[in-house]
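Fig. S4 source data, part A: sequence.
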Amino acid sequence: MVPTSVEEVIRALQAHRYIADRGLATAIFLALRLGRPLFLEGEPGVGKTEVAKVLADLLGTELIRLQCYEGLDVHSAVYEWDYARQILQIRMLEAAGERELSRVRQQIFSPDFLIRRPLLQALEARNGRPPVLLIDELDRADEEFEAFLLELLSDWQITIPEIGTVRAEQPPVVVITSNRTREIHDALKRRCLYFWIDYPTFEKEYQIVRARLPEAPERLTRQVVAFVQELRRLDLYKVPGVAETLDWTAALLALDQTELDPVVIDETLGALLKYQDDVLKVRGEVARDLLAKALLQAERAPGIP
């Protein structure tokens, strides 16, 4: 069911355990209402990819994901021909006495021999509902791949030289994410609605952890969120995102912890920090100092029961 208002988007996201502020909910609503791609930027782990997953769930449709990487090309993203089957077909035609090149070409370059990759799958969806197409971490791909996306995002079509142009009967719901390791070209951004997802406030991150890990004791949740909030103030190589907050909370639950203490923090920093230099920087005295500040913040946090 497509939400009919921003408030309905907020409620639908909450029902699927995604806590969004009004700005993000408005961007999602407009993307759905106007049929525009949604371009999400932000630091890793703040919930950009999760938006697409939740959208697919609440719309009751398929999620098609294209994970971008350096060197990504049309063959990996759109389509390629099944060369092994084509060669076998050519041999079978030769054995049957077929010598007309145009007929051979017509048979081997047919849709039956086409391997559909995510972008083509998104255009050919036939289940009655447009899929959600997630183009994840576009900043990892090359600029040449960006240029290829312009035809898709402008006209919802892809040209296959051997077959022709494939057009979407129902354009997919498109979510594009970027960690901003490089700038995305303006020509692509102009085709999208843009929203920056920042690190959450204490109150919002508390709500996220409660929604995702309701079994976590309230005291532990408060302390974890407060500690992570203080940790983000440090000059780290990789600041932990919300995903790491959830991972750390889950790790502490697995250890049957009901509150933070210096020893368990030092022992579980690997669930929160992903670089050894950051772990060494935080472990010990720095962690104890952060814990003291976090305990104070957790007790004083406003607006949380």
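Fig. S4 source data, part B ends here. The chain has a mean pLDDT of 91.
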